[in-house]
Design a protein that fits this description.
This protein has about 190 residues and is α+β, with helices and mostly antiparallel strands. Helix content is about 40%, strand content about 15%. It contains seven helices and four strands. The longest helix has 21 residues, at about 110-130. The chain is globular. The two termini are about 35 Å apart.
């Protein structure tokens, strides 16, 4: 069965090539429909044994800012740490999606983590496809207890994704050449 969910958007190669980690956002809101489309793309990701270990939560403006404040507090005295900058990105973004692992699943955690990475990548590509900026944030892993307190959610936090209307167009970051990463003779 073929499943066509999305309309006339950019080609996959264009979305992959143009996806950037956006860290500057305009003061424009992102609608619920955009967030839902990003999450729908995430849940279409492949997952080991089709376990689909993901859960998603879209933080409110107040929650998003409380998470950013916790990150500032946690990292402000660590010389050279990017946490304070990341907190500014979170505050500037329209929305913050928190990604959880279903902690009722106990075995094969490594497989589930790979599956979650695929889901997040699908989400990032969908936001790019729709013309929105996003960034996958790892620094929020430093404040998982604060996340539990702010959001009242007991699932284990894996990561977050900030979403908004991009206010920058970064150049592509350098990538290793194919001959440096391909370890086979084709």
């Amino acid at each position: 069965m073929l499943l066509f969910i999305y309309g006339d958007n950019m080609e996959l190669n264009d979305a992959i090539a143009s996806r950037r980690s956006i860290r500057k956002f305009k003061k424009e809101s992102v609608g619920e429909d955009v967030l839902i489309e990003g999450i729908k793309a995430a849940i279409l990701a492949p997952s080991a044994h089709n376990r689909q270990p993901w859960k998603f939560y879209v933080a409110t403006e107040v929650e998003k800012n409380q998470i950013a404040d916790a990150l500032i507090e946690k990292t402000k005295d660590i010389v050279g740490h990017t946490g304070v900058h990341t907190a500014g990105v979170i505050k500037e973004a329209s929305r913050l999606i928190v990604i959880y692992i279903d902690n009722q699943i106990k075995e094969n955690r490594d497989m589930d983590m790979l599956s979650l990475g695929a889901a997040i990548q699908n989400m990032l590509l969908k936001f790019t496809d729709m013309g929105y900026g996003s960034v996958w944030i790892a620094n929020t892993n430093l404040v998982v207890e604060d996340l539990k307190q702010v959001l009242g959610i007991e699932f284990e936090t894996i990561s977050t994704v900030a979403v908004g209307v991009a206010d920058q167009a970064p150049n592509p970051r350098p990538r290793k050449p194919l001959d440096e990463v391909l370890i086979t003779n084709l």
